[in-house]
Amino acid sequence: TAFGAATQGLRVLMLDYDGTLSATRTIPDFARPSPQTLRTLRRLAELPRTLVYVVSGRIRAHMERWFEGIDVGLVAEHGLFYRHPQAVGQLQGLTQGPQGPMQDADGWTCLVEHTDPQWRETVLPLFQHYTERTPGSFIEEKEVDLTWHYRNTDPEFGLWQANELKINLERVLSHWPLTIVNGNKTVEVRPSQVDKAYALRAIIGNLAGAQLDFVMSIGDGRGDENVFAFLNTELKATQELITCTVGRKSTQAKYFLPNVDSVLAILSKLADSS
User: Fold this and answer.
1) What residues have CB less than 8 Å from 90, skipping those under 6 apart?
2) What are the backbone dihedrals phi and psi of residue 135, each rounded to the nearest 5 degrees, phi first?
3) Among 107, 55, 79, CA closest to 191
4) pLDDT tens, 162-204?
5) Is the four-CA dihedral 77, 78, 80, 85 of positive or negative sign?
6) pLDDT in tens, 200-251
7) Would you call 40 helix, strand, or coil by DSSP?
């Protein structure tokens, strides 16, 4: 395989979490990775010259707990925070290195210098109003983002409420630099300048000076389309670039896989091939 044949430079895997490495679950305690997922990621991360990044909308604390003991890079809250695998610190020839001006003691880099907390005071009452009138919905408060979940509501009523909520949010947040995102049964508010592609651009920038022989990105959501577009444009000179969406849809990716099981099967084959 191309993965096994990449014997000189780095092999970089950028893997979305919910809907790609794991079936989408609303409640974080039910969303932890399966033993098979952890086993596959560990095998890949232990390979020479191989960097694995797991990209998620989850908060840092959940990701640290779920992937403890496995040397994978983590991207949290859809790109607001990222942390390299420890293996990056052992690489030679990086022109910029993994250090960043906003890096904390645990190695996390925050891509937002500061956010005005007042927007949360505007959004939360709206979220609470729609939670009270939509049985099964709930609010998730992250470090920066705010998310309203309606996966467990009546499908038609939940979607109707979500659309109405989005219209009201656009009206009250028009003067703030925020993005309102219709996710997978979610409505999320987050800083507009940062997304998954922005974080991966920063990660690739940190790896400047290294030869990238193999880059693979797999994801299932709308936010992953920006990642595919970025990679197809910025890394088209890479010896082997593979972008892959999960599920058939109109996409910027070159390939598709049908479901989570097929993603894990492909990753397991990569681990075997080298």
Assistant:
1) none
2) -55, 135
3) 79
4) 999 999 999 999 999 999 988 889 999 998 888 999 999 999 9
5) positive
6) 999 999 998 888 999 999 999 888 999 999 999 988 777 799 999 999 889 9
7) helix
The strand ranges marked E within the chain are: 10-16, 50-55, 73-76, 81-83, 109-110, 138-141, 146-149, 178-182, 186-191, 212-219, 240-246, 255-257
Q: Is the dihedral of CA 15, 21, 27, 30 positive or negative?
A: negative
Q: What's the average model confidence in pLDDT over 58-71?
A: 94
Query: What whole-number distance in Å separates Cα of residue 187 and Cα of residue 183?
Result: 6
In the block, tokens 């797991």 appear at 54
Query: At residue 117, does pLDDT exceed 80?
Result: no
The residues with which 119 forms a beta bridge, in sequence order, are: none
The tokens describing 222, both together, are 């709308």
The pLDDT value recorded for residue 107 is 87
Q: Is pLDDT at 101 greater than 60 in this prediction?
A: no
β-strand pairing of 10-16 with 50-55: parallel
**Pairing status of strand 146-149 against strand 138-141:** antiparallel
Burial pattern 29-55, b for ≥16 Cβ within 10 A else e, equals: eebebeeebbebbbbbbebebbbbbbb
Q: Which residue has the tokens 């947040």?
A: 173
Q: Mind giving me the DSSP string for 46-59?
A: TSTTEEEEEE-SS-
Give yes or no for a contact between 83 and 52, defined as CB atoms under 8 angstroms apart: no
Catalytic residues: 16
Task: Please give the model's pTM, rounded to 2 decimal places.
Answer: 0.90
Contacts of 23 (CB under 8 A, 6+ apart): 260
Where does the pLDDT of residue 97 fall: very low under 50, low under 70, confident under 90, or very high at 90 and above?
Answer: low
